[in-house]
Amino acid sequence: MAERTLSIIKPDAVARNLIGEILRCFEVAGLKIVAARLVRLSLEQARAFYAVHKDRPFYGSLTEYMSSGPILVSVLEGEGAIQKNREIMGATDPAQAAPATIRRRWGTDVEKNAVHGSDAPETAAWEIAFFFKPDEIQSAHK
Ligand code: CMP
């Protein structure tokens, strides 16, 4: 059954005109973009989205960065979409990411790592609902 995951193209990647190249990676891998929007998070919204990391030392810096400029949020759909997206993104730290992954190609450091992707079905459902109403998501298009 087709699965859905949330993807974010982070502020530095949007600022560097990488939206097209990064979305292309998802499409080449066979994932469908079934919703997409450019948004600018407030600091409060960024803090809410990353609340799971609130006790981590990087929480303040991460949420300031994620609210520093526009981001491209999208819903990707396909067989095993969550895991497939994680493979396309590569490891969190661009220096550790496999060659040809998004983070290896365009990530700057562990914070400015170009993209975010949901890590499990429960977080995907929560993260998708954070940004999109059900009627803003198109059902699988061929
Ligand atoms: P992301 O997939 O958006 O989820 C949490 C983010 O925290 C992560 O990508 C990184 O950009 C950021 N982050 C910053 N420092 C660290 C760190 N030391 N370990 C893990 N994530 C970090």
Give descriptors for this structure.
four-stranded antiparallel β-sheet, globular, Alpha-Beta Plaits
Describe the fold and architecture.
The protein has 142 residues and is an alpha+beta fold. The protein has one domain (2-133): Alpha-Beta Plaits, CATH 3.30.70.141. 39% of the residues lie in helices and 20% in strands. It contains 7 helices and 4 strands. It has helices spanning 11-15, 19-28, 43-49, 59-66, 81-89, 102-106, 121-131; strands at residues 2-9, 32-39, 71-79, 115-117. Strands 2-3-1-4 form a 4-stranded antiparallel sheet, with helices on both faces. Helix 3 (43-49) crosses helix 4 (59-66). Bound molecules: adenosine-3',5'-cyclic-monophosphate. The site of adenosine-3',5'-cyclic-monophosphate has 8 residues, from loops.
In short:
The protein is α+β, with helices and mostly antiparallel strands. It has seven helices and four strands; from the N terminus they run βααβααβααβα. The chain has a four-stranded antiparallel sheet, sandwiched between helices.
Task: Describe how the helices and strands are arranged.
Blueprint: E1 2-9, H1 11-15, H2 19-28, E2 32-39, H3 43-49, H4 59-66, E3 71-79, H5 81-89, H6 102-106, E4 115-117, H7 121-131
Antiparallel strand pairs: 1-3, 1-4, 2-3
Helix pairs in contact: 3-4
Bound molecules: adenosine-3',5'-cyclic-monophosphate.
